C-alpha cells in the first residue's frame, strides 16, 4: 500500500512539473519573446521616451552617429569578454589591455614607426598579456579573477611608463586617424569593425564545434574533460583571444580620437561587463553570453546614457546607469539560469 501511494505521489509530482512547463511555454511573455527580446523592447521604449522628451535633438542623424560611434569601442571590449566568460573565466585586464593598445599604437607612430608595424605591435602586446593571463590561470592555478586583476594593475603601470603621464596626440592628417574617423554608409568605420568581430564570434560560438566546447567547459569543466575536451587549452586560448580583441579595441579607439593617455582604458571595464552580462539575458533563454545579445545591450546602454545627457543629466549619470545595469544584468542572468 505504501509503495502504491509513493508511486501515485511521484506520478502526481511529475504531472505537476509537466503542467508547469507547459504553462511557462504558454506564458504571454514567452509568446511575444519577452524572455529573449526584452532588451529590444526596452531599446524601443527608450527611443520612444527620448523622442518625446527631447525630440529636436534626439531624433537626428547626429544622434545615430554619436551613439553608434561612442559604443563601437565598448562593443569590441564587451565582445572580448565573451570567450573567457563562455569558458567560465573572468578577464578584468580587458580595460588595461585596451589602454595599452591605444597608447602603444600612437607612441610608436610618434616615434616614426610605420602604421602597420605600430598596429601589429599593439596587437602582439594584447596577445602577450592574454598568454600571461592564460599561463597564470591554467599552469599556475591562480584564479582568473585574481590573475587578471593583478595583470590589470601591471598593465596600467606599463601604460603610464610609456606615456610618462602625458597625453599623446597624433597629426590629424595621419592616415591612421583619417581612417579611424571615416564613415561608411552613414556609420563610423569603427561600428563596422565591431560588427565584423561580432559576426565572427557569432559563427564560432554558435556554428562550430569549438563554440560548443567553449560553452561546455563553462558549464561543467570536469564533465567536458571526461568526454575528451581539452579544457586547459580552451581556457588558455580564451584569455589569449580576449587580450587580442581588447588590443584591437584600443587601436580603434586611438584611431577614432587621434589621441591617447594612460587613463583611457579603465572607464571601459564597467560598461563592457554590464553589456556582456545584460546581453546574456537576451536572444538565448539560458543566461548564456552571446554576441548578438551583447550588441543589443551595448546599444541600449549607449542610447539611454546619450538621451539622458541630451536631457541635461549630470555627467555622473553614465557611471550610475552602467552600475545599475550591471546589477540588473547579473540578477536577470541568475534568474534565467534557474528557470531553464
What's the helical proportion of residues?
A: over 70%
Q: Helix count? A: 16
The succession of helices and strands, N to C, reads HHHHHHHHEHEEHHHHEHHH
Q: What overall geometry do the principal axes of the alpha carbons give?
A: globular
What is the C-alpha radius of gyration, as a whole number of Å? 22 Å
Strand content: under 5%
End-to-end separation in angstroms reads 36 Å
Write down how many β-strands occur, each being a DSSP E stretch of 2 or more residues.
4
Low-pLDDT ranges: 1-21
Mean pLDDT: 87
Secondary-structure content class: mainly alpha
Strand order of the largest sheet: 1-4
Sheet having the most strands: 2 strands, antiparallel
Your description of this structure?
There is one protein chain. This protein is mainly α and 340 residues long. 78% of the residues lie in helices and 2% in strands. The protein contains 16 helices and four strands. The strands form two sheets. Strands 1-4 form a two-stranded antiparallel ribbon. It has a two-stranded antiparallel ribbon with strand order 2-3. β2 and β3 (187-188) form a beta hairpin. α15 (291-310) packs antiparallel against α16. The chain is globular and about 60 Å long.
List keywords for this structure.
single chain; 78% helix; 16 helices; two-stranded antiparallel ribbon; 4 strands; mainly alpha
Brief digest:
The protein has 340 residues and is mostly helical. 78% of the residues lie in helices and 2% in strands. The strands form two sheets. A two-stranded antiparallel sheet has the order 1-4.
